[in-house]
Structures are given as C-alpha cells and as structure tokens.
C-alpha cells in the first residue's frame, strides 16, 4: 500500500541550489516583481491560492544546443498567451502583456546561467491572505521559477496506459482549457490511480465517455493512415505540443491530421497512439487497458514524430526557428 510522505521536521533541503549546478551558483526566481534567490521566494500559508487552488500556471521547456552553445525556450509567446487566457478566466487584474512576460523569462533564465535542458514554471496566483472562496476582490501576483529538467516520463519505450475511472473535468465545472492549479487534483487522481494499478499513465474520458487526454498530455491516435486527435471541445488543454505536432505531421510528413471525437474502444483498434506535452514530449503508447497497440513497441509514425520534434525544439529545423527564443 503506497502512503504519502510523513511531514516531520528534518534537515532543510538546499532549495536555492539546483541539482547538477555548481554549489555556489544561485538559482533565481521572479517573485513580487523582482529577481530574487529562489530560497527567498516564500509565500504565507494564508495565501488564497494555497487555500483554494486559485492560481494558473504554465510549463515551458528550454532546450540546450551544444553546437550553437545556446539555450532555446520553446514557443514562449504561445505559452504566455495561454497563461494570460487562464488568468483572464480567473478574473486576474495585472499589467503584463505577452512581450513583458517573455522578456522577464528570458532575463530570469539568463541569470540562472544554466547550460542544460530546463523547465520554466510561471504562475499567476491570488496572493491576498484572505479566507473566503471567490475570484473577485483579491490581489494577484506572478512568480516564475527555472529548473534543470530531464524526462518527465520515459519516452524510450512504449508505455502502458489505462483508461481512468476518474472523468475529465467539464468546461462548465472547471475549464480544462485553462491551466488552473486546483484542477490538477483531477489529473492527480487519474495519474495516481494509473500508477497504483501498474500503468505508466492514465487516459481520461469526458463525462460523455469520449477520449479526452492524459493526466498532463494530449493524445494522438493513428488509424487508417491518418492522425486523429480529440478537438478542443473535448475538455482538453489546448496543448502547444499538440499544435506543434499537427504542424510538423502535416508539413513535414504530409499526413492528414483530423480533430474529431474518439471512442474508448477505438484506442483498442489503433495502429499507434502517442501522447504529447511539454513535460512528456512525445510518449509512445504500447498498450491500452491491457490491449496491445500495434506491435506493442514504438511505432514508425511515433518514432518519426519524436525525431522531428526534437529537431525542432533543439533548433535543427531552420524553418521552425521562429518557435525558439535564444536565452544567451
Ligand atoms: N493536457 C494537460 C492536462 C496538461 O497539463 C498538459 C501539459 N501542459 C498538456 C495537455 C500538454 O500541453 P502542452 O503541450 O501545451 O504542454
């Protein structure tokens, strides 16, 4: 039986230092309008966002390119556009526009001085120290952290996934199109259920029973030579990796990509399935609910998509260089 961590006083972890970074190198956060050492970026336990999950966030990757001696932030403006949409849905007043957020992130990443793959996590949160559930009449703050980052999920083998008994939150309950912190408990229920049942990842269905997405990934299925992915009205996050793969598959592989509702048992008949996300990148699926998908190993389309994706994010495809923001 898996248990959660028991919280008891212990030697404090050195939160100001990132693993793999020289000991004396300070890691910075953007916090309350300033660049500060990460260890000084602290909020009160009375913070509204902590009590009620009233925050929204983004997950952005930066890829190190050894040849160019450069760190490339991937589709930075698109991530910040989505963050501003999430913040608007949460009725957050602020003065940040997309270019400001890109500039701040670039400066923060530069100060962190990392020469490896990174993850950037900006969060807009209801910062008032107030009890009472609401969205209005609360202050908001922006914070951003940067971390060295590797794989979120194993992408060198075909994963086993299970359809979750937890349904994806509906747009009129908790909009999945916004990256709302509190909504990630829905994803956590699905992910943990999948893990405790021996699967690598969960597939969530909508209340109507259509395939929605993974716990933190969008889904693509190959059937009849076409790539099929659920439309944005199926309670998915409108994934930036999803949009990237749709473009690459159409433009570089000449494939037809269709957005349409997917039934659960179509997954059992699929030739290939893979998940996409900033964290997960391109994660091929080898089985769904104990039914083998295709050969059960990484399929040729998923392998080609993986190759194209990594070429694009590391700056090896000149025609998609406009997706990249160099840090140095
Ligand atoms: N769905 C959910 C629920 C997610 O959390 C993520 C990760 N951000 C995705 C899909 C993939 O989105 P993206 O490609 O923009 O990272």
What features would you describe in this structure?
- The chain folds into two domains: 28-150, Aminotransferase class 4, branched-chain amino acid transferase, N-terminal domain (D-amino Acid Aminotransferase, Chain A, domain 1, 2-Layer Sandwich), CATH 3.30.470.10; 159-313, D-amino Acid Aminotransferase, Chain A, domain 2, CATH 3.20.10.10.
- Helix content is 24%, strand content 26%.
- It is built from seven helices and 17 strands.
- The radius of gyration is 20 Å and the shape is globular.
- Mean pLDDT is 93; it is low at 1-24.
- 4'-deoxy-4'-aminopyridoxal-5'-phosphate binds next to helix 5 and strand 14.
What is this structure's SSE topology?
Blueprint: E1 28-31, E2 34-37, H1 48-52, E3 55-57, E4 60-65, E5 70-74, H2 76-89, H3 98-112, E6 118-126, E7 140-148, E8 159-163, H4 184-196, E9 201-205, E10 211-214, E11 218-223, E12 226-229, H5 240-253, E13 257-259, H6 266-269, E14 272-277, E15 281-288, E16 291-292, H7 300-313, E17 324-326
Parallel strand pairs: 8-9, 8-15, 12-13
Antiparallel strand pairs: 1-2, 1-7, 3-6, 4-5, 4-6, 5-17, 6-7, 9-10, 11-12, 11-14, 14-15, 15-16
The structure holds 4'-deoxy-4'-aminopyridoxal-5'-phosphate.
The site of 4'-deoxy-4'-aminopyridoxal-5'-phosphate has 15 residues, from helix 5 and strand 14.
């Amino acid at each position: 039986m898996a248990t959660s961590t028991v919280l008891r006083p212990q030697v404090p972890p050195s939160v100001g230092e990132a693993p793999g970074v020289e000991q004396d190198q300070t890691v910075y956060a953007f916090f309350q309008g300033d660049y500060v050492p990460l260890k000084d970026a602290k909020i009160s336990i009375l913070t509204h966002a902590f009590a009620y999950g009233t925050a929204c966030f983004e997950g952005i990757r930066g890829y190190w390119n050894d040849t160019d001696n450069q760190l490339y932030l991937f589709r930075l403006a698109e991530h910040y556009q989505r963050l501003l949409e999430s913040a608007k849905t949460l009725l957050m007043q602020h003065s940040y526009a997309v270019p400001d957020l890109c500039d701040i992130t670039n400066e923060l990443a530069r100060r962190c001085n990392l020469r490896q793959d990174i993850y950037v996590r900006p969060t807009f949160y209801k910062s008032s120290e107030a009890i009472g559930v609401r969205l209005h009449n609360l202050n908001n703050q922006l914070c951003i952290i940067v971390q060295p980052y590797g794989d979120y999920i194993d992408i060198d083998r075909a994963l086993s996934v299970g359809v979750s008994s937890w349904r994806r939150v509906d747009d009129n309950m908790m909009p999945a199109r916004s990256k709302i912190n509190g909504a990630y408990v829905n994803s956590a229920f699905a992910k943990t259920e999948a893990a405790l049942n021996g699967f690598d990842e969960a597939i969530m269905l909508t209340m109507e029973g259509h395939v929605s997405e993974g716990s933190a990934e969008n889904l693509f299925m190959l059937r009849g030579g076409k790539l099929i992915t659920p439309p944005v009205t199926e309670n998915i996050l409108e994934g930036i990796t999803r949009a990237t793969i749709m473009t690459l598959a159409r433009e570089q592989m000449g494939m037809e990509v269709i957005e349409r509702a997917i039934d659960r048992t179509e997954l059992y008949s699929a030739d290939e399935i893979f998940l996409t996300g900033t964290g997960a990148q391109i994660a091929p699926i080898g089985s769904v609910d104990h039914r083998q998908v295709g050969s059960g190993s990484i399929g040729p389309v998923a392998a080609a998509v993986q190759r194209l994706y990594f070429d694009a994010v590391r700056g090896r495809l000149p025609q998609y260089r406009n997706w990249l923001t160099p840090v140095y």
